[in-house]
Automatic annotation (TrEMBL):
Taxonomic lineage of the native organism: Bacteria, Bacillati, Actinomycetota, Actinomycetes, Micrococcales
Domain of life according to the entry: Bacteria
Keywords: Hydrolase, Metalloprotease, Protease
Coiled-coil intervals, chain numbering: none
Protein's UniProt name: Zinc-dependent metalloprotease
NCBIfam families: DUF2342_F420, putative hydrolase
InterPro entries reported in the protein's UniProt record: CHP03883_F420-assoc (IPR022454), Zinicin_2 (IPR018766), Zinicin_2_N (IPR042271)
GO molecular function, one term: metallopeptidase activity
UniProt organism field: Fodinibacter luteus
Length: 346
């Protein structure tokens, strides 16, 4: 038995996730076909704008509902984290009692399922790294429909806009195959490092009671701010810098491609940015608890970084960033694009 009951996580997620927009079967099928076509149409302009070569035989995007997104991500989390749990147990030198593990796996499965349910109603698309499996571009149809209607924007243009962003992620990883394995390895290594021992758990319980209100302040990095050492936060900042790069680059490419292919792109960007600022109080608190609010700010910093580098050395000069792990930006360079240019280009 594993340390997280991932099947229970899927069941919990499916139970908790809100229903999507109400549409007829014919409307749903038409929307899925339109999203899939928009994803195919995004390939050539994204690759041309990013100046990155990708395989010509890429499979079509997977257009999914919220429950399927939960199931796919639960499988990917299992592939990502189960080897990590084994490494943690090996490091501690003692496996938990089978009975305790059985109960614990249900608890952690429920927690994972609740988190997946929350995210499943927010995510528009994703390039699933699928550790140990086959990576795939996923687009969440009910969320694309719901957000387009919420924003009051043209559905056709919004589909194209989302697909430009998510297609950029596919290009990033397929043009640079080493990047996927590097990111998976870094995430697994960090997860092992972050796992506390028994003594640290007791200490953290006291810290949580004393400092939990700080987690909810604006700009908080969430629970990780309480549970990590300075050295661990430095490693986490390095991984976040990579994520900031990936999201920022996708935003830049999406907005650069947009004007030539999406008539209402400026209106969509303005409405989408306004929506980010206007989340409800409960949603905002949960985002702060999970550190998602700080990550959103860092993603915006990623776009500023990409723009800053490209203004100095152009798109081709920027693409040196994809050469190796050593050319990826350091955490401090995300806020100082010229520092990256000096380090990499001299």
């Amino acid at each position: 038995m594993g340390y997280v009951d991932w099947e229970f996580a899927k069941t919990t997620g499916r139970t908790l996730v809100p229903a999507g927009p109400t549409v007829t079967r014919a409307e749903a099928e038409a929307e899925v076909a339109a999203i899939r076509a928009a994803a195919r149409a995004a390939r050539e302009p994204v690759a041309a704008t990013a100046l990155l070569d990708t395989p010509d035989d890429a499979p079509d995007a997977l257009v999914v509902d919220r429950a399927t997104w939960i199931a796919v991500n639960a499988d990917s989390m299992s592939a990502m984290l189960d080897p990590t749990f084994d490494a943690i147990i090996e490091r501690r030198g003692e496996a938990p009692h089978p009975g305790v593990q059985a109960v614990g796996s249900k608890v952690t499965g429920a927690e994972a399922g609740a988190l997946l349910a929350f995210m499943a109603s927010k995510v528009l698309g994703q390039y699933d790294l699928a550790p140990g499996g086959t990576p795939a571009l996923m687009l969440v149809a009910p969320n694309i429909v719901a957000v387009a209607d919420e924003l009051g924007v043209d559905r056709t243009d919004f589909r194209a806009w989302v697909c430009m962003h998510e297609e950029t992620h596919r290009v990033q990883f397929t043009a640079n195959p080493w990047l996927r394995e590097h990111l998976v390895a870094e995430a697994r290594s960090l997860a092992v490092d972050l796992a506390p021992d028994t003594e640290r758990l007791t200490e953290l319980a006291g810290i949580l009671t004393e400092k939990l209100p700080e987690v909810f302040r604006e700009g908080s990095a969430g629970l990780t701010e309480l549970f990590t050492t300075p050295e661990q936060r430095e490693r986490l900042a390095g991984l976040t810098a990579i994520m900031s790069l990936l999201e920022g680059h996708a935003d830049v490419v999406m907005d650069d491609v947009g004007p030539a292919h999406i008539p209402t792109v400026a209106h969509i960007r303005a409405r989408f940015t306004q929506r980010r600022k206007g989340v409800g109080a409960a949603d905002r608190m949960l985002r702060r608890l999970l550190g998602l609010e700080a990550k959103m700010r860092q993603y915006r910093d990623g776009a500023v970084f990409v723009r800053g580098v490209q203004e100095r050395v152009g798109v081709e000069g920027f693409n040196a960033i994809w050469t190796s792990p050593e050319t990826l930006p350091m955490a401090r360079e995300i806020e100082d694009p010229h520092a990256w240019v000096r380090r990499v280009h001299g």
